[in-house]
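agent> fetching stored inputs for the zinc ion docking request
agent> found them:
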Amino acid sequence: MIPIHLKRTWFSILLIGVFATAFGCAKAKETQPIADRKIRVVATTGMVADLATHIGGARVEVKALMGPGVDPHLYRASAGDVQTLSDADVVFYNGLHLEAKMGDVLEEMNQRILTVPVAEGISPEKLRSPKEFRGHPDPHVWFDVSMWAQTIDQVRDALIKLDPTHRAEYDQRAEAYRAQLNTLHQDILKKVSTLPSDQRVLVTAHDAFGYFGRAYGFEVLGLQGISTESEAGAKDVQRLADFIAKRKIKAIFVESSVPRRNVEAVKAAVKSRGWDVKIGGQLFSDAMGSPGTPEGSYIGMVSFNVTLIVSALQR
Ligand SMILES: [Zn+2]
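agent> prediction call returned; pasting tokens
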């Protein structure tokens, strides 16, 4: 076994090699001023890519590294990704340690190009810091739409910094998107108000929905912790099953980016306690749906989740 610090050293050497090649190429081909061409944006998750697309409009060409069903907690950058990142004018990522396995790569990028952790612009007092996450804030900020709206400024400011000529366009699109998100936030509040408060219990595969619960009045329990890096144990299954059977919770949910078997195990354990809990459907948690489908956009995925949660928990 190779000691961890040596592994990191080798990884860094590899990175430097890839960077040297990548930057050599990028420098040679780039002569056009940014105001006369599209800005090359690379984003980590689909949610961040969608945000950049809304604010950048026709001025940006956005690539997302993580597609549908990809778990950002576990995602590692490939050599191809490093090349893609190196060719970018700006890299947007969630931050708050969501992209836990991309830390080295993002740190390297930060030395060379503009990198923006969009969620780290949110006022720190708004962040949840559950004790399970050992001092780190909960990174799943996109599930409180009013919080996600606060990331708009980070993206707008970065685009203006790169391309001040088109400032008015970025300002205008940022405000338009903010208005859309405000409407979405109000719509969610209206929809969930049709559920009696004792039925607002959300049990999911991992703790992605803490901000959702806080914003929209749900008690939230996840089988795995804040990150999917820690495996759910038999104890967690029993603990959740006790809770669900006792409270007679109607439905629990699977997630698009976390294996279904974990939630199936909870369902079986609940059954052995004499209560039949149904699987209410699949929520989009840390990854959006396929491009071109309604759930392939941030607004679409959030609306889909809310409709599913409210209808599954309705008696
Ligand atoms: Zn997560």
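agent> quick read of the result: The longest helix spans residues 4-29.
agent> awaiting further instructions
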